[in-house]
């Protein structure tokens, strides 16, 4: 798991445990706005469940068991609790739901997971199908399986589930992890529209994700570093197929663009200096200066290859230490892997 994702996970856990975290004050104008969604009322959900139960031929003992699941709910029962009760209800009726609830109750124990396509069958009541998809997606996210979680959450809106705040929050988490900036901001903003009806832990973390996504610029070194983290996550999960290759190729392409942009800026700075060999101030960076000197330099033996991988270990480490001083540590990892890739390709 990447450092950023690990930090976010720890933050989610901390906010989960400390419910008293204050929510940022909102203006009277924002409080006056009507949210685009509302949390389901527990009693209304129970009434829907019992109405559905009346249409099923259920043995009396099983019916009593399901009724007991809903016996102690109140107006203060949380969305997460209602979601768990819905899952338990459908699991008592359908073996596939029971298997899915069992999967989601413990850490992942198998490399390949069932697709759970049955959740999209028209015969499954939307009350259960949509909320079971949300339950499954939440577990997938906890297991860092963001692509699979995205498949489950795609197409669901706040009015499709009994826990709209959970849906919007986890949609935001998936988009944040996969760097889908626009979709992530949309889900987060919709969640914050109903902040008064949302768990404080969701609101607190959502605001942090919102600020982070707003400042994320595509093709920046930060953006590239995060994509490298995503590659590492996928490889840790045993994923090494076309998707990972596409992300890797994209990272290399972005680094090439970034380096080219820096070179162009340096050339422009050189041109702006007027080509003088007697500048009024020393150069601010390591780039070729303009001018028409004789071009005589002391010759040194630097080897027969210019590949990064052919640098002597001492010189390579000195260069990486310089990078480490100039950039945060995870940027050094990105650049080191980039040059290692170039060295590998150069030797083929």
Key terms:
348 residues, mainly alpha, 2 domains, 15 helices, elongated, disordered N terminus
Set out the fold topology.
Layout: H1 3-17, H2 28-32, H3 42-54, H4 60-69, H5 79-91, H6 95-103, H7 126-142, H8 146-153, H9 164-178, H10 181-193, H11 200-214, H12 221-236, H13 242-272, H14 313-326, H15 329-346
Descriptive notes:
The protein has 348 residues and is mainly alpha-helical. The protein has 2 domains: 3-24 and 33-217, no CATH class; 218-269 and 310-348, no CATH class. The chain is built from 15 helices and no strands. The longest helix has 31 residues, at 242-272.
Roughly how many Å apart are the termini?
31 Å
User: Percent helix among the residues?
Assistant: 55-70%
Order of helices and strands: HHHHHHHHHHHHHHH
Question: What is the alpha-carbon Rg in Å?
Answer: 28 Å
Q: How many E-type strands? A: 0
The figure for the number of domains is: 2
Poorly predicted runs are 1-32, 302-309
Shape: elongated
Estimate what percentage of residues fall within beta strands: under 5%
Number of helices: 15
> Which sheet architecture does the biggest sheet show?
none
Category by helix and strand content? mainly alpha
Mean pLDDT: 79
């Amino acid at each position: 798991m990447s450092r950023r994702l690990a930090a976010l996970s720890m933050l989610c856990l901390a906010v989960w445990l400390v419910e008293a975290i204050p929510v940022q004050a909102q203006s009277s104008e924002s409080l006056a706005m009507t949210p685009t969604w509302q949390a389901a009322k527990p009693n209304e959900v129970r009434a829907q469940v019992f109405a559905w139960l009346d249409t099923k031929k259920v043995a009396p003992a099983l019916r009593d068991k399901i009724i007991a699941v809903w016996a102690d709910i109140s107006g203060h029962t949380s969305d997460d609790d209602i979601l768990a009760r819905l899952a338990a209800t459908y699991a008592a009726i359908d073996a596939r739901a029971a298997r899915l609830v069992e999967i989601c109750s413990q850490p992942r124990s198998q490399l390949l997971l069932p697709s759970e396509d049955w959740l999209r069958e028209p015969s499954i009541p939307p009350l259960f199908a949509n909320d079971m998809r949300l339950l499954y997606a939440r577990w997938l996210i906890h297991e860092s399986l963001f692509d699979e979680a995205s498949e489950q959450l795609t197409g669901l809106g706040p009015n499709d589930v009994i826990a709209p705040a959970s849906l919007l929050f986890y949609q935001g988490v998936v988009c944040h992890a996969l760097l889908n900036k626009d979709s992530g901001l949309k889900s987060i903003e919709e969640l914050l529209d109903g902040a008064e009806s949302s768990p404080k832990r969701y609101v607190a973390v959502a605001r942090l994700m919102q600020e982070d996504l707003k400042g994320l610029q595509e093709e920046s070194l930060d953006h590239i570093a995060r994509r490298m983290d995503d590659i590492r996550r996928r490889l840790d999960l045993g994923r090494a197929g076309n998707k990972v290759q596409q992300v890797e190729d994209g990272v290399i392409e972005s680094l090439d663009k970034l380096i080219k942009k820096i070179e162009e800026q340096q050339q422009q700075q050189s041109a702006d200096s007027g080509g003088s060999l007697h500048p009024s101030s020393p150069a601010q960076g390591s780039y070729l200066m303009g001018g028409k000197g004789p071009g005589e330099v002391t010759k040194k033996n630097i080897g027969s290859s210019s590949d990064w991988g052919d640098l002597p270990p001492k010189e390579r480490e000195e260069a990486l230490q310089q990078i480490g001083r100039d950039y945060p540590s995870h940027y050094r990892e990105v650049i080191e892997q980039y040059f290692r890739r170039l060295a590998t390709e150069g030797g083929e």
